[in-house]
Design brief:
The structure holds two protein chains of two kinds. Chain A has a domain of 140 residues: MetI-like (MetI-like fold, Orthogonal Bundle). Chain A is an all-alpha fold. In chain B, α2 crosses α14, α5 crosses α8 and α13 runs antiparallel to α14. Classes of the chains: A mainly alpha, B mainly alpha. At the A-B interface, α1, α2, α3, α6 and α7 of A face α1, α2, α4, α5 and α6 of B. Chain B: It comes from Cryobacterium zongtaii. Chain B: Keywords: Cell membrane, Membrane, Transmembrane, Transmembrane helix, Transport. Chain B: InterPro entries: ABC_transporter_permease, MetI-like, MetI-like_sf.
Chain lengths: 307, 317
């Protein structure tokens, strides 16, 4: 959060380059900043925007640690005194938090891995066989799915997953992968263009098969884009509400957001309990994000969609 | 996105040396063929099974009287569902609401995200801090954000408390979500708050692809910041722009979670949406056929708008 990670990030950006120099350019920002003293008005705008984010988060955290009596005293901004974890205990038991959290973790992890693997494989096959009709048409076919949002197919989807015995987190994972795939393939194919084919040709001359070339050479080179695709898949899957709520038939196997929405009515006026439960739902993703934000930002900005 | 699709994403890009011709290495090329197909097939087949087949089923169901749980088999009813749909006042209200939502959210969120991306891209002290903070709502699920804002939007909630303090008690905030005039704007404000960080990051990634030497040259020529934006940044972002436009629009048209958690379409249908209506009639009323008709109309709208957007962004490019 301080400036130090930024400096480290710059160092990494400068050293970590792809084998060929031309695929990388200096970040434009490095130049633009020259002689541009940060103006006061700019800082104020940035700070105001940050405040709109920080205030609700602060209120959530402080409410969660209050006792029930404090939570309803009408002063949302006051610090909790004394600190109380009663809210967490009640919310934990009421929502059966560990189960919902576990389901969410499994679904999200499956989605991230599945999206990256399926997307990278398909994109590699497409981009290296672009001169063949079959692969070219497959590309447009895969992209076409982007224009079919989940709500359009929701109803038959419920019957289909029920029929296949997939009305559970496994089915939700598969569907999450499917609805991430188009976007991921778009990102991967764009990135594969920047990887020179000379590299692969030399690997081929050394006798590597297509699979070996992919796993040993291409997949590692795709890492920044895999990070981007993985982050998008993580966000979409972890935060999704509609798909699990409609697809999963057994309420005990619901993901965290769905459980949150089911139990919201039961908290009634126990603000400390409801905010503790919101915080428990938010915290894992936020903590993971705070620790990985350097790679998140780097991954996303490096794996840019090149025009 | 347009230009990304248009251009072949692969080897035959300009200036690449010709790849070794296939006929010479017959044996290798055959296994290569198989490997290529093996890599592609899972994605193609799974997508067919889980997206395209259901899509076709949805279209079929729209012309039947299928119900979610029913002892009778579904029968073909022709255009009955559509006739009923176009006489349904709630559906029209939903169309208007979604149109209103999209028309405000798409430019507002995309524009705000671009401004934030440009600001955050400058090497101002604490850039990392701002990037991190702006992205926090994005890693918070929409359900939790909705529940949080439900509390903030109450008559005695946080937002009205702030309004009261800032104006020294002169202005009393409305009962945001229970007032037909403020319910939709309240949903819009919250949605932009949650989503803007995500699109800021996508703009930011686009900004990284603009070559630095263009800005260097511009600096030497002494151009104004506006010219710099108008003639370097804006054209340089064309691919990113189409991508962001398409994703925000489809997201906005699919508005559902916020509505389901916060207002259930109320008050007086002032926040009901097309997707919410489809889910309501599909589940609460269990009318699969009718709900599929709504989905079909929704799909046509998404497709039409996407085509128009693509057409417009192609014109400019």
């Amino acid at each position: 959060m301080s400036t130090q990670p930024a400096l480290i990030a710059e160092g990494i950006e400068a050293t970590a380059t792809l084998e060929d120099g031309k695929a990388r350019r200096r970040p434009a920002s490095a130049v633009r900043s020259r002689g541009n003293k940060p103006s006061m008005s700019l800082m104020i705008v940035l700070l105001l925007c940050a405040i709109t984010v920080v205030v609700p988060l602060y209120v959530t955290v402080s409410m969660a640690f209050k006792t029930q009596a404090q939570a309803v005293d009408g002063n949302a901004f006051s610090l909790p005194a004394p600190f109380s974890v009663d809210g967490f205990v009640t919310a934990w038991n009421l929502t059966n938090f560990p189960a919902a959290f576990g389901v969410s973790v499994v679904v999200t992890a499956g989605t991230v891995i599945g999206t990256v693997l399926l997307g990278a494989l398909a994109s590699y096959a497409i981009s290296r066989n672009w001169d063949r009709k079959l692969f070219r048409y497959s590309f447009f076919y895969l992209l076409a799915a982007m224009f079919i949002p989940f709500p359009v197919v929701a109803l038959p989807q419920i019957q289909l997953t029920g029929l296949l015995g997939l009305d559970n987190p496994v089915g939700v994972t598969i569907l999450h992968i499917m609805f991430q795939l188009s976007f991921s393939i778009l990102l991967f194919t764009a990135f594969l263009r920047s990887i020179p084919s000379e590299l692969e040709e030399s690997a081929r001359l050394d006798g590597a098969t297509t699979w070996q070339t992919f796993w040993r050479l291409i997949f590692p080179l795709l890492a920044p884009m895999s990070a981007t695709v993985g982050i998008f898949a993580f966000l979409a899957s972890w935060n999704d509400f509609m798909m699990p709520s409609l697809i999963t038939s057994n309420p005990a196997l619901q993901t965290l957001p769905v459980v949150q929405s089911i139990f919201q009515t039961q908290f009634s006026n126990n603000y400390n309990v409801s905010f503790a439960s919101y915080l428990m739902a938010m915290a894992p993703a936020i903590i993971v994000y705070l620790f990985t934000q350097r790679w998140v930002m780097e991954g996303v900005t490096q794996g840019a969609v090149k025009g | 996105m347009t230009s990304t699709i248009e251009r072949p994403p692969a080897a035959p890009a300009a200036g690449r040396p010709a790849r070794p011709s296939r006929p010479k290495r017959d044996r290798t090329s055959k296994t290569e063929n198989l490997a290529g197909l093996a890599m592609l097939t899972p994605a193609v087949l799974l997508l067919a099974l889980f997206i395209f087949v259901p899509a076709i089923l949805a279209f079929g169901l729209a012309f039947t009287n299928a119900r979610l749980i029913s002892p009778y088999p579904a029968t073909f009813v022709g255009l009955d569902n559509f006739v009923r749909l176009f006489a349904d006042a709630a559906f029209f209200r939903a169309l208007i609401n979604v149109g209103y939502f999209a028309l405000v959210v798409v430019p507002l969120q995309a524009g705000l995200a671009l401004v934030m991306a440009i600001l955050v891209n400058k090497k101002v002290r604490g850039t990392t801090f701002f990037r991190t903070v702006y992205f926090l709502p994005v890693v918070t699920s929409m359900v939790v954000v909705s529940l949080l804002w439900l509390f903030m939007y109450r008559q005695d909630g946080l937002i009205n408390v702030i309004i009261d303090r800032v104006t020294f008690g002169l202005v009393t905030g409305p009962d945001w979500l229970n007032d037909t005039t403020t319910s939709m704007p309240a949903i819009i404000l919250m949605s932009v708050w949650q989503g803007v960080g995500f699109h800021m990051i996508i703009w930011l990634s686009g900004l990284q692809t603009i070559p630095a030497d263009l800005y260097e040259a511009a600096d030497l020529d002494g151009v104004s910041p506006w010219q710099r934006f108008r003639y370097i940044t804006w054209p340089g972002l064309s691919a990113t722009r189409s991508l962001i436009l398409v994703t925000i629009t489809i997201q906005a048209l699919s508005l559902f979670t916020q509505i389901s958690v916060m207002t259930q379409g109320g008050p007086l249908n002032s926040t009901t949406t097309v997707v919410y209506e489809a889910v309501e009639s599909g589940f609460a009323q269990q009318e699969t056929g009718y709900a599929s008709a709504i989905s079909l109309v929704f799909f046509v709208i998404v497709l039409l708008i996407s085509v128009v957007q693509r057409f417009l962004s192609r014109e400019k490019a």
